[in-house]
């Protein structure tokens, strides 16, 4: 969904002034982020999303509609012209660091030591380095060194 006054005044926002809450309202359920993850990994069709995630058809239909309505995905004719496909928009691609950070958190905290899991690698096969927030001066940032400035 494009940025509009209607969106800004949406009465359904969990916490209207918080960007984290608004993001979670838009993509914060597990199925939406798994659809985005799979779109980043090349899934395009309803069938591919369903096969990769195991999601029920009705839930997948709902999530694809929601992600399309909010501008995370766009629906277009597939190259064959016989079907529709879903492709990430710029807003959808902007979720890449979110997906990577969730993945890296999961690698550290959701697996037992030594338990095998998939690995994200760059085009050369090198594991992607950990994403670490830094300040304008290059110093590492954390919850103890930042604060939310309310408007």
TrEMBL record:
Keyword field contains Transcription regulation: yes
Record Pfam families: HxlR
UniProt keyword terms in alphabetical order: DNA-binding, Transcription, Transcription regulation
Gene3D superfamilies hit by this protein: Winged helix-like DNA-binding domain superfamily/Winged helix DNA-binding domain
InterPro entries named among the record's database cross-references: HTH_HxlR, WH-like_DNA-bd_sf, WH_DNA-bd_sf
HTH hxlR-type domain location: 18-114
UniProt-recorded Gene Ontology molecular function terms: DNA binding
Name of the protein this chain belongs to: Putative HTH-type transcriptional regulator YybR
Organism: Streptomyces chartreusis NRRL 3882
Gene for this chain: yybR_4
């Amino acid at each position: 969904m494009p940025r509009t006054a209607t969106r800004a005044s949406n009465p359904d926002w969990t916490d209207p002034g918080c960007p984290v809450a608004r993001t979670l309202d838009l993509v914060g359920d597990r199925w939406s982020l798994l659809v985005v993850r799979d779109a980043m990994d090349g899934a395009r069709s309803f069938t591919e999303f369903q096969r990769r995630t195991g999601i029920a058809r009705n839930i997948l239909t709902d999530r694809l509609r929601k992600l399309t309505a909010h501008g995370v995905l766009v629906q277009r004719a597939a190259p064959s012209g016989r079907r529709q496909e879903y492709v990430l928009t710029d807003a959808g691609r902007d979720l890449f660091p979110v997906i990577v950070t969730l993945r890296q958190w999961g690698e550290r905290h959701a697996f037992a030591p030594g338990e095998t899991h998939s690995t994200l690698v760059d085009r050369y096969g090198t594991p992607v380095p950990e994403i670490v927030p830094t300040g304008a001066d290059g110093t590492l940032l954390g919850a103890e060194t930042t604060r939310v400035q309310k408007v």
